[in-house]
Amino acid sequence: MSPGVWRYSDIQKEKTNLLDAANAKPDTAKLNLWEKIPFPLVESQIQISKQNGKLYMRFPLEKDEQIYGLGLQFKQVNRRGRVYDLHMDHYGGVDNGRTHAPVPFYVSSKGYGVLINTARYITVYVGTGVRVDSPNPPRVYNRNTDEDWKAQPLSDAVEVLVPVDEAEVILFAGRSPLDVVRKYNLYSGGGCLPPKWGLGFMYRTHTKYTSEDVIKEVEEFDKHEFPLDCIGLEPGWMDRSYPCSYEWDSVRFPDPESFVKTLLNKNIRTNLWINPYLAPRSGLYEPMKQYAGSHTVWNGIVPDYSLAGARKVFTDFYEREQLNIGVSGLKIDEADGYDRWLWPDVATFPSGVDAEQMRQTYGLYLQDMLLEEYHKKNIRTYGLVRASNAGASRFPFVIYNDYYNHEDFITAMINSGFSGVLWTPEVRSSASGEEWLRRMQTVCFSPMAMINAWSSGTKPWSYPEVFEAVREVAAMRMQLLPYIYSTFADYHFNGTPPIRPMPLVEGFVDDDGEEAGKLDDTLNPYKLATKKDIKDQYMFGDNILVAPVFTGQTSRSVILPKGKWFDFYSGVYAGENEIITIRATLEKIPLFVRDGGIIPMIPSRRHAPINGELLPLEVRHYGDSEGTFLLYDDDGETFDYEKGEFSWTELRTTKDQQGRLLGAETKVSTTIFSYRDITWRFMTK
Amino acid sequence: MSPGVWRYSDIQKEKTNLLDAANAKPDTAKLNLWEKIPFPLVESQIQISKQNGKLYMRFPLEKDEQIYGLGLQFKQVNRRGRVYDLHMDHYGGVDNGRTHAPVPFYVSSKGYGVLINTARYITVYVGTGVRVDSPNPPRVYNRNTDEDWKAQPLSDAVEVLVPVDEAEVILFAGRSPLDVVRKYNLYSGGGCLPPKWGLGFMYRTHTKYTSEDVIKEVEEFDKHEFPLDCIGLEPGWMDRSYPCSYEWDSVRFPDPESFVKTLLNKNIRTNLWINPYLAPRSGLYEPMKQYAGSHTVWNGIVPDYSLAGARKVFTDFYEREQLNIGVSGLKIDEADGYDRWLWPDVATFPSGVDAEQMRQTYGLYLQDMLLEEYHKKNIRTYGLVRASNAGASRFPFVIYNDYYNHEDFITAMINSGFSGVLWTPEVRSSASGEEWLRRMQTVCFSPMAMINAWSSGTKPWSYPEVFEAVREVAAMRMQLLPYIYSTFADYHFNGTPPIRPMPLVEGFVDDDGEEAGKLDDTLNPYKLATKKDIKDQYMFGDNILVAPVFTGQTSRSVILPKGKWFDFYSGVYAGENEIITIRATLEKIPLFVRDGGIIPMIPSRRHAPINGELLPLEVRHYGDSEGTFLLYDDDGETFDYEKGEFSWTELRTTKDQQGRLLGAETKVSTTIFSYRDITWRFMTK
Predict the structure, then answer these.
(1) Residue A306 pairs with which residues in a beta bridge?
(2) Separation of alpha carbons B271 and B203, rounded Å
(3) Over 90: is that where the pLDDT of B521 sits?
(4) Does the structure show a pLDDT above 90 at A38?
(5) Could you tell me if B344 lies within 8 Å of chain A, comparing CB atoms?
(6) Which of A69, A73, B93, B305 makes a 20 to 30 Å CA pair with A418?
(7) Residues B195-210 pLDDT 10s
(8) For residue A111, what is the DSSP state?
(9) Are B120 and B87 in contact (CB under 8 A)?
(10) What is the pLDDT of residues A341-361, one digit of tens each?
(11) What is the DSSP secondary structure assignment for residue B73, as one 8-state letter?
């Protein structure tokens, strides 16, 4: 189809499928720029057959090959040797495939990826089944006598069951796993480019807040000198919720328009919580009823948003009541599950889309509908969603959930980078100041820096003993906005995921180390080995390696890939191609920068840059190698970048004849460039 | 079909289905003895339709109706408001439908039950979905303002998705939920009748034991005066396992025949562990290979036991090598899962049975094959299996697993009573003497009293501080054998489950109490209510209510149904129709007997009664009402009871003119009766 992109031609996709539900249009122009690359697998080793109305698929696996992806799992990164039933759901604490983004796309360490474009629940056996006629049979051990016996003999294939006989299979190949992910994202239309304010700080207020409460809260942010770009309102903004009216509560919010404008005048956006289930007493109910599915959720009807009619009912209302008064976007809750209150798989929808398909795609339809609405107005949005899937990279929505395990939130963020989705480890409340700070540190190095106080009412300063450090990391987030915004531009234009798992980092080697299990008749009767899994560190953009510290830790180990690495704060050399152990201070989240890494920063501020502002730029350089960084800029608010209204500025360090590093920039635009007084700072002495 | 049994006639069953795989033949003679009963539901409220190649089913639910069953779940008993994907698997700690006996049969508190006879993975929504056009819509609350808002509005239907368009639906009705379960079991051919020795004590030795080690262990049982009826050998009896040879290890067991005979001479049976996966170096491998599925498990081939050819290969071998030398039965391990090593759903089998169907039925095929083999020889067997399903009640196999949570083991035992399967809370090892004793107490009030020391090597006397109490409860088990054997006869002839959940007990009312949830933004964001679930007490046969005590408990509450209840040990009145709180002594498991309850007992002994023995019988009576008990007897070893070679003796207490209780028995047979010197003991003064 494009260089390094192939589609299996013998079977057809179903009418309802993920990419079409996501309205994903391949960025063919970008994809065609890639160099040609040979087909990465031995074709005869791929088997795709129809049997009993189902599709049985097999893709070969090499002995030392590792597999990643398959959506937003929370506990493991390396997928080999595991089984996933990809099924849209509220994550339930087990990595079994039921999650908020059960993306049927996997990436191999060998530089290729496979997308099964289907809206069915599929089962993916990632190197578990061993065939009788396998050409690479594992050695047979005798458990009675061989200590080396393993509960899981090595399998030489990924196998997939699709419960219908139609599905699109697309294979991506690249020179590295990162290139494969880039192509996958470009195939979905590229990554999203959030508005600049979206990368600042969001605070979601208590659900029962009135407009006065919110304004007071904003003043408190002023007093505490804490950044704030967006206020999120939780269910209480509506006059009824669960099921929802989508109509402002006239007591708590007597004048929504003036409320939203008041915030906007302070450079603060308003984001509104909704879930998709419409209350009988909503004005939308009657016009929407004809487009509703057979079952209710929390007594609300479920609009069939695969239908243009349903979309129009919603968007006409939304445009009139929310968008036109200045609402910046939505948090779309509970489009994922869970089973006990979502529509059952026996539900029917007027479009004829199966309940199963509707469940896998509902979040996609909702995101597409809302993005299209903002696009029409030429205003960018940046919101939240709890259900996404394949083809979603262009959607400016960040996934979140209720699960709230800090360590697992970071693993989820890492996994998001393989699957073309964004994840925020949102902060709600904490058992201690230490936990509060540790969570705040990581959320500031995520796609959305946010506190969600919907129930707890917690403020950034609720733990006074750590507030200085909390403010410091939030300030750091604001200083890094030029770096972060350029990182997202790379996501948009090149498909490069802003959160990068270590297996996508050049110089990182996943050795598939296993720790042998210890036999225990009740705890480990099969003597299961534990896979060493790198799930607590990641790259934030090209240059910053983040090594979060969790509550209770006083030190941690960090894997530094090949090439030298330097401490972000001091510029001091930290190591190369080794595992280092660092002492964890409470105040700072450990960050490392690669050799030659360039990081553009602005002074600390309380709001993201506003279109037209000119800001001084400090460009930091780390290490002793030359480096380059492409600084992206545009108006930060509209879709005019689609018409070419943007600039890339090359920031470059070179060595003079004495070997001293010098900085330089190549401006390509004077009009689309928000920076002045560029100063270079060489962090490594 | 029979009084109170209906089959839905508009759709056909699939060729491969559970009842046929179980070779279940309805006991029509018994079923026809029941009185006629009207159809229990409004027929028009049942909907079964084919859509997109699947079956969508709906059965009505009344507001105060409770639903039980759906197989061996471990954490809850009451199914209402929950969703189950019935899927054969290793239980994984969550009641989601994946378990060792995912039986698609549910029982209503309203006195009917529904069986979906399909070998597919089906999803059952037990009162979760609420339809837009429901005639009984729940009240709509506003979560913003109503404290009464619930995350789960009451649904008026059970809904079922079957992923193919064929399935048999059978509805059972009775005057009570117990009668419904009886009919379901009779429809499967009635319950199993174990040999008498099977109800004694089983000890499974360490996997590495030699025949000498085993004989020494048996001597230790003698020395410790501990009952022993069956020795179980774990994988080490074979020369290779995982995958298995099924061939004796010539070093550890140089003379199997004399070994088995030596034990038999001591009245001890031998049970052998196997799993179904055949090693390349087994003599069975070559003849079986033609019948094997496409995938291996632990490098062993998976015989397709739906084929007569495969069965013959196995049973010819088994008869020659094991049965004919006196082996009493098997423990059939790992026929259930789990996904990471079982065959994947893309596996194929020579019979054409789908991998999914094979997984749901594999345990049934294995049990049927083995039972048939012993039946042919007119020798009863009693063994273990880790995978079962609908139609299994006649199989003399008890389910067990590795999960090992004591409380949840009891919940599983309770749930087994709704689903026509047997469960043992087997004891392996314990963290303390207290835990060891508590586990031993419950396993002695289960279908199989067993220690499984395969890995730990633990002995009954390994915790000396509690050994006296351990021996006491094991002795109690042996004393109760006439009661337990009669209880199983009632299972066999009348379908009455030996382990009876409280909702099957007359006089017990399940009030569906809910405890309102407490909102917590991270722990309970939906303010989910907790269902009060009676999952820690059950009836063992008709008369004994067992209220297990778990480690750490010093007291517990016990729900006594309507009618008076008496302490088993003292005969003292305990209460009626109330919740009592009892102090838990370490030495005794709390037991209560219903008013008029009669319990026949023999003197404590080290082996179950042997055919031909004549034993003194003590008949205990509790309370102050008259009562009757049907004492069953037969040879205890063969299937001659199928030819009428058995006796039922009525034990009856009546009051004389002064109101004093007197005991009497009506013997119907002198030849088939193992008891002499019947003495009556009136426990309640």
Answers:
(1) none
(2) 10
(3) no
(4) yes
(5) yes
(6) B93
(7) 999 999 999 999 999 9
(8) T
(9) no
(10) 999 999 999 999 999 999 999
(11) -
Q: Based on the number of CB atoms within 10 Å of its own CB, is A250 exposed (0-12), middle (13-18) or buried (19 or more)?
A: exposed
Chain A hits for B249, CB-CB cut-off 8 Å, are 144
Strand ranges inside B610-646, DSSP E: 615-621, 627-633
Q: How far apart are CA B346 and CA B295, in angstroms?
A: 9
- The pLDDT > 90 percentage for chain B reads 93
Q: What are phi and psi of B512, to 5 degrees?
A: 55, 35
Range 441-460 of B in CB contact (< 8 A) with A: 452, 454-456
The pairing of beta strand B105-108 with beta strand A300-303: unpaired
Pairing of strands B499-501, B538-540: antiparallel
Which CA distances in Å does B631 have to A293, B195, B672?
58, 16, 12
Lowest mean pLDDT among A303-317, A358-372, A509-523, B545-559: A509-523
- The secondary structure of B286-332, three-state, reads HHHHCCEEEEEECCEEEECCCCHHHHHHHHHHHHHHCHHHCCCEEEE
Q: What is the mean pLDDT of residues A9-38?
A: 96
Find, among A109, A106, A108, A101, the residue nearest to A73 by Cα.
Answer: A101
Q: Token pair 């037969």 is at which residue? A: B634
Interface test with A, best of B142, B240, B282 (most A CBs within 10 A): B142
**What pLDDT does B451 receive?**
98
pLDDT in tens, A665-684: 888 888 899 999 999 999 99
* C-alpha span between B103 and A336 (Å, rounded): 28
pLDDT 10s digits, B117-130: 999 999 999 999 99
- Cβ contact B521–A163 (<8 Å): no
Do residue A295 and residue B129 have CB atoms under 8 angstroms apart?
yes
Q: Nearest CA of chain B to the CA of A151: how many Å? A: 7
- Residue B669 pLDDT exceeds 90: no
Q: Between A and B, how many residue pairs show a Cβ–Cβ distance under 8 A?
A: 198
**CA of A339 vs chain B CAs: smallest distance (Å):** 7
Q: What is the DSSP letter of A139?
A: P
State whether residue B260 is helix, strand or coil: helix
User: CA B536, CA B533: separation in Å to the nearest integer?
Assistant: 9
- Within 10 Å of residue B211's Cβ, how many Cβ atoms? 21
Biggest distance spanned by C-alpha atoms of chain A: 78
Extract the tokens encoding A37.
Answer: 């690359």
Task: Return the closest-CA partner of residue A576 out of A563, A566, A567.
Answer: A563
In this prediction, residue A484 carries a pLDDT of 98
- Partners of residue B565 on adjacent β-strands: B575, B594
Which pLDDT score is estimated for A509?
77
Contact state of A429 with B522 under an 8 Å Cβ cutoff: yes
pTM of this structure = 0.96
State the complex-level ipTM.
0.95
Assess contact for B69 and B109: CB atoms under 8 A: no
- pLDDT value of residue A235: 98
Beta strands in A62-147 (DSSP E): 67-69, 82-88, 98-99, 105-108, 112-117, 122-126, 130-131
Band (A512; pLDDT cuts 50, 70, 90)? low
Residues 6+ apart with CB under 8 A from A488: A191, A192, A193, A194, A199, A498
Look at the block and give the residue holding tokens 């530089």: A111
**Count of CA atoms in the C-beta half-sphere (13 A) of A669:** 16
pLDDT tens digit string along A571-581?
Answer: 999 999 999 99
**Residues of A whose CB is below 8 A from B243:** 140
Find how far residue B346's CA is from the centre of its chain.
31
Q: Tell me the three state secondary structure of residue A173.
A: strand
> Which of these, B10, B500, B84, B450, lies nearest to B273 by C-alpha position?
B450
pLDDT of residue A522: 80
How many residues would you count in chain B? 685
A48 touching B (Cβ < 8 Å): no
B520 touches A: beta carbon within 8 Å: yes
Q: How does residue A532 score in pLDDT terms, banded at 50, 70 and 90?
A: confident
